[in-house]
Amino acid sequence: MSNASALLVGIDVGGTFTDCVAVDRLTGASVAAFKLPSTPADPAVAVLAALARVGADHALEGAHVCHGTTIGTNALLERKGTRTALVATQGFADVLELRRQARPELYTFDVRLSPPLVAALDRFEVAERIAFDGEVLLPLEGTDDLAERLAAQGVGAVAVSLLHAPANPAHEQRLAATLRRRLPGVFVSVSSEVAPEIREYERTSTTVVNAYIGPAVGAYVDRLAAARGELGLASLRLVKSSGGLTSPEVAAALPVHLVESGPAAGLIASAHFGVRHGRLNLLAFDMGGTTAKAGVVRDGSPRRVHEFHADALVDGRNLGGYPILSSVIDVVEIGAGGGSLASLDEAGVIKVGPESAGARPGPACYGQGGERPTVTDAHAVIGTLVPRALEASGIAVDPALAGLAIDRRIAAPLGWTQARAAHAIVALAVAKMAEMVRLATVRRGLDPRDFVLVPSGGAGPLHAVAIAREVGISEVLVPPWPGMFSALGALLADVRHDLSASVLRLAGELDDAYVRARFAELEQRAAALMAVEPGVAEVTIERLADLRFRGQLFHLTLPVPPHTADLEAAFRRAFVDEYGFDLPDAAVEVVTLRLVAKAPGFGAAITTGLTAQQGLATTVELTEADGSRQACTLVSPDRIEGTLSGPALVVIGGACLWLPAGATARCLDDGSLAVDVGERP
Predict the structure, then answer these.
(1) Residue scoring higher pLDDT (616 or 260)
(2) Is 586 among the domain residues?
């Protein structure tokens, strides 16, 4: 049995699989790594099953668990949140309906928009008014009457977002206190606590999402917290959208910061992995069973933004989604995973995704009742899906079932062979993911050829070389446990809290005393959050500011210099670096001050290679698009001597690397694979 206080367990819940990695804190090496089928109806079931599996061989008492969760995301995407009311300033209750003038798809005649999460009958107004500078123009009245009306409405959550609350939150605080006292058991979300920033629509949307998913996240967190006590765990932390960790208590109060939990953990793992190997500019590519994601790591750090739109893409259409003001690791995501369904559209053309087979029934080849072909089924027909990579998850692969599904739905209607249809499905999936990589790089002014591709997820390494060739990347670096990489990323993250305060004043009007006072307020809030985090000792503070030229809608985020007088010059230099010109006659405006509070997690303890000795070396046959058969090496990393040339399949950490002809791979000391993608022969 492992030392009771030395075990670190990372768990990541995906749409198809729940991944788990357990690491011995004393040696820094993994002692367990596996996948289990996810349980979408109740994600906690798979999480607890993963802990039970680890606990069968290692003592869980005193262990630390870090968990990337999709519970908030699922509640939002599946519209399974609680019935929510919105309380707004009189005359402003329909801000969710009015939105912004911008349309998500500018040239589409059949405009579709994400429906508001609060029905018209559940929007309430209160008599009060605060000016833009915080002056009270109309005192707050009628709070008790409002509480009675909300109680009669029978809502499970209330979002409070009053006009100009970032300038003066007094009315929101009074109203929230009344509602929490008069409505026990109702989740109350307040904009000045959730997103104290300017822009009324985005602030209100964030507050509403927080309320809508709050009860579902709270129930889930309570269940895991109860298990923490029963199992004797030392701590339980959840991954936030920013890539930071937080306690269950903070997560339950501010669940909106968990919406992009899973993708964030993968980027954190990629950044750590790249630094270890001296690769500071990476393109992280994660392909699981349901989606594919890509994000950029520059100079060893993932790119973060402070706003994103959740649930924007529905059935391949951009509906606008729900704006969320929250620090988030910038990720491009598409519906193209291993479980993405292949079908024929009305014109008889093959398409892949965005619909997925999910965990149940899953791909046809899993033998769980699935009858529609997926990307995974295409690989089963070609021979690139290696059953051994899925053995630990308890899933058996039947290529005959995959072939039957592809024949019925794709090959027969088109008059094609099964092999041709399978290769076409994979080629389409690769094309979609290559475009996703371009969205993350080229369309943001970055050249993908300047980056190293780091694939992860159960299906990431299988497509990595093909995608790299498509976008011009020459090197692929495969981590030792790519199939469980996000679970590992949860263990590598720091405890982190991002706080903000809107200013909206000219840079020349600010002095050191004012800036110090505003940051002191943020530091006080950060200290209160860190006080809830278990085992936090050393906290580092980073001070940032959003600046823009007055009249612009977009800003740059910069570190705040020691002297406020230097802020404008720093912004002008950054603007020239970013856009190539200055606006010497334009005034510089400080929009928002930001503070990042971080405390070290467990990343420093994970120092040695996470290698797995599998002793696999054999030969298999792959089916080409023309139906011919090609011999292919099948090997595990520990059996690679020198350089391995394609065609080859490498079973590595819950995934499989497909090395086509022309590509070569070397096994590094920690069990990772360095791949030269070469050129198509």
Answers:
(1) 260
(2) yes
